[in-house]
Structures are given as C-alpha cells and as structure tokens.
User: Fold this.
Amino acid sequence: METLKVIKIGGNIIDDEQALQLFLKQFADLQSPKVLVHGGGKLASRFAKKLGVEVKMMNGRRITNAETLEVITMVYAGKINKSIVSRLQAHQCNSVGFTGADGNSIVSVRRPVEDIDFGYVGDITRVNTDVLAILLNNAITPVLCAITHDEQGQLLNTNADTIAAEIAIAMSSHLKTELYYCFEKSGVLSDVNDENSVIEHIDSATYKSLLESKVISDGMLPKLTNSFHAVSNKVANVYLGTPEMLFTNNSKFTTIQL
Amino acid sequence: METLKVIKIGGNIIDDEQALQLFLKQFADLQSPKVLVHGGGKLASRFAKKLGVEVKMMNGRRITNAETLEVITMVYAGKINKSIVSRLQAHQCNSVGFTGADGNSIVSVRRPVEDIDFGYVGDITRVNTDVLAILLNNAITPVLCAITHDEQGQLLNTNADTIAAEIAIAMSSHLKTELYYCFEKSGVLSDVNDENSVIEHIDSATYKSLLESKVISDGMLPKLTNSFHAVSNKVANVYLGTPEMLFTNNSKFTTIQL
Assistant:
C-alpha cells in the first residue's frame, strides 16, 4: 500500500470559502490514501456569539463549558464536517465524517483541573484505528473534526493539531504515514514577518538550538512539539506549510525529521 | 446473517432526555445487526429561534431555506447525532454517525418547485449500501440523521421516516430486513384518543378499507405510505409502535404486511 497522508487544515482555509473550495478539489485529486483533520475556531466563536454563549479565554486558550461544547459540536461535527464531506463527494472523493466518538476512534480523558479548569477539554489516551483502517482499505477518506470522547458518553473538545499527530502515530503501525500541517505560513520562519525566511529542514539538533535562541513564534511552538512527538513515534515525516506543499513542486515548506 | 433491524425513533424520544437514555441502553443491547435513524424537529426549531432564523411552515411542513438548512445540519448531524453515538459507545455499541453525504450513502434531488418551493428539501433517488454494509459486516451500527445530499456538494433536508424506509429497502437486497417506526403511540389506532384501539395487523386489503373509512389520522398517513412502500419492495415486515415493541413481549403494536 502507498504512503498514507494525514493532512490537517487550519482556520485560514476553513474560514475562507474560496480557499476551502480550491483545497477540497485538490485534496480530492490526491491519489494516495488520506485522512483529513479540521477544527474551525472562528466559525464556532461566531455561532457562540449569535447564541449568546460567552467565549471565555484563559492564556489564549478557550474554556469549554457545556454550552461552548454544544456549539463546538454543532459547528465542527455538523456544519463544517458535513459541508466538507458533501463537497468531497462532489469531487468523487468518497469520504465519511468522524468525531472521536464515531467508531470509538479517539478516546480521551477530561483534562484534570490544576490551576485552571478548562472544562470539557479532552487529552487523548488511545486511538482505535480499526474503523479508520477498514474505510481506508475500501478507498474511503475519513474526515475528522476536533472532538473526542471519554467512552462514558461525554464528548470532549480536543486540539486538532494533536488529533492529527495521534492519528498519524496510530496509523504508522499499519502503513508508512506522513503528517502535513497546512496553515497560512510557508512553514517555520526564522523571521515571523518574512515569508522567505522558511527553515526548510528541522531535526532534533536544530530544534533544540531554535528553542534556545527563541526564534520560534509562540503560535508555532505547539505545532513543533506535536511534530517531534509524531516523528519520535514512527511517523515517517512531518511537513509544515501552506497547502501548496501538497499540490505543487515549487513551494517552500518545512520538513521535520528526527 | 441474522435479520437486520432498521429502527427509526421520533421526536418524542429525542426530546425526552430520560426516554432517550433508556432507549439507547436497550438499543445497544439488541443482539441483531441494526441501523438507527433519527430526526430531531423540536430541537432544531429551538436553535433556529435562538439564532433568529424564522421557521416557516407551509401545510404543516417546514420550508428549508439556507439558514434553516444550516441549523438542521448543526442540530441533526452535530448535536443529536454525536450525542447518540457517544452514548452508544458508553453502552459498548460501536457506532458511526452518518448523513446521506457520508459514504455517499443517500443521494437525493432538490424537490422541484411546483406550487410551493420547499427550499433545500431532497427527494431520495438512490441509496448506496456499500459503506453501511461494510460497517454492519464489522459489527458497527450506523446512526443516520435526516440529511441527504445531491452529489454536487449540496446537503438536503429529508424526512427521517422516508430515509428509514429507503435504507430498509436497499438493505433488503443484502439480507432479511425489518423496519421499525418507534413513536409515541402503540401503533395505528382505530380511535386516535384510545391507546387500546391498536390495529394489530394491517395488510393491503385492510389498508384500503381503512383509507376509505378515513379512520387513520393525518399524522399517521405518511408512515403508512412509507410502510407499504417498504413491504412492497422486499422489506420483510414493518412494525409501528412505542420502542417497547422492540424490547418486551407484552406491548401492543401494529404489524404491516402485504
């Protein structure tokens, strides 16, 4: 079997109708087996506001109370996920939308309360690849949104970057797997304001020195942590950049290797 | 393989937290292969109101404009469907939530405008059982909500009773299939105000005479039309009644046969 591509798309694509349409057409045409992972932050905040649900942030992170979880479930698993699936079908890419509850595919525990109670936020404890593997073996593309569950009937909000990394790690025991983080930058930049400053290769040694020199922006740090977690657990390669890295040969991006 | 049960639950179960919890526990324990179909009307209307989306009815039927479809997609495919799937997982019933777009399982066309434009309402043209059959063969229960798609990227609102009938018909070509309509009455009543007036068996001849005598309530007519459509197309039996008909031996219900 070919290499599996686990592809995570960020809010800049989800929130831009034209960008999303183009991405889905190109994604559908990718010939390798593939998994798509998405969040959808801005849209969730917009609906929360419309419904009069207060969006509480703490250190830049969303506090997920019961009402917020309800909005997230409706927007991520309903509106965004089903819009993506129906449009992939229009491009002849047979797909099935997933939360971590579907097929019991991603199990998490509610994050323990230490200084902050993040609410209904789940930390992943186990990925069951059974159903995902069955679908992939039948040329069907799973589309996962950023929701997991605790096997006790509770859905939990979980970071989409982390979901993508854990899915890639779990699938690596079946077949060669690559992880792609698609976002608005051309990869990891040495100067956050200069798109030409892409660091094309990062290995453990350069990662360490980048951390020490504090070159990496705060927003990029979790992605790099997830990336090294993935390559340290049998994921073949991790790539960070704009979606063009998947579809053209002339874009710059960052490759992460051990 | 055993008999497949396609089970449709009505708004009276969806809208009653305690009834839903009990139903899902009993449903999870059913040993035969099974498919669950649900709508969720009242909850959708509640969220539409909260979001300031006007609910337009015409001859007792909902007009589905773009905003209404958005609400329906969020409530049916997001909130209700994922709540059901996560709770079935808690009862060790491995399930995957579906719209008709997922796995390209239910294809429809937007209803042509004659006297009334119903908006984004889909009439089913084809059921693809491929993905549903793959899941059932792996002991996984599909949970379908009342949304289909047109294969051109458009989701469409479709009556859940009709979805259940069409799924049952399509699955009948794979294995013996029974259809259950679970709702608030103990079946088809000869006196709508008397729960003891259940008509226990209806065949084509009694159906015709019931129609002529105008005994059947308006709300029951579409269910009976769907039921006879199903049994006329290889579905083994159709049952109408409260969920108890599935789980106990002492409840009354209506059995439909040709």
Summary: Residues 66-90 of chain B form the longest helix (25 residues). The CA atoms of residues 39 and 146 of chain B lie 5 Å apart.
